[in-house]
Amino acid sequence: MAYVFPGEGSLDYFPCRYGSSRVLFRGPRRDIERAYVAVLGGTETYGKFVPVPFPDLIERQLGMPVVNLGCMNAGPDVFINEAGVTEIAAQASVTVVQVLGALNLSNRYYAVHPRRNDRFLGATPLLRTIFPRVDFTEFNFTRHMLMALQSASVDKFEVVADELRAAWVTRMKLLLSRLGKTTILLWASDLPPPQPTRRVDLTCNPLLIDTEMINAIRAPVARYVQAVFSAQALSQGVDGMAFASMEAPAAAGLPGPAAHQEIADMLMPAIHQLM
């Protein structure tokens, strides 16, 4: 069953920082003075609304600290901009990197907040030239903005999408180059990566990512784990999740405890192989 709370802060995420980073991660803070595993990722890794997210499940099975470096709505930029975080990830015995969407990164067409990557800061003159009738002051978040651009013109939107894909590949290669050789790339979604012919679909998460892009960044990683949630896990909906009543729609769009267990189960063999 779901645990619905009427007030704010239905879960205590014990927010903490590592090193000199200004980014808040889910705690409690782990001991990084001894051997540990690190997990870089977005909202799914952070485990929003999930009492025991998959990094904690892995920790229980391994019997060693697993540092949850999941950041809400993260793109690659938040980790690239935080050298202290990538250093912690690089020093881990094994590092897991979740495949993140391509919408939340700065590029030739728009800028995002350096730490809260889903925050749209503004359009460049180039994007304003492509979409002269769009009022970009109306947007606070990247997803809302991209959906509006696609609605305005599918063809023009594809120009922007191509830039995002190219920037994502470049940025992910840079991020992975800063990590160790025992790195696992993780795809975690309710669907497998789509083929490039389906690139315009904005309903697939991670957004705008396809098989071609994943293949382009796989070379430096030791393992690739594709965790596609089972029908049984998806059928459980928000069972076991903890959220305030007004957060129910957001919770319904995120993986629940059963999906997190599946992610952990799929990662464990790869982690054991690299330990």
Automatic annotation (TrEMBL):
InterPro entries: DUF6473 (IPR045524)
Residue ranges of every copy of the DUF6473 domain listed in the record: 1-275
Domain of life the protein comes from: Bacteria
Protein name (Swiss-Prot/TrEMBL): DUF6473 domain-containing protein
Lineage: Bacteria, Pseudomonadati, Pseudomonadota, Alphaproteobacteria, Rhodobacterales
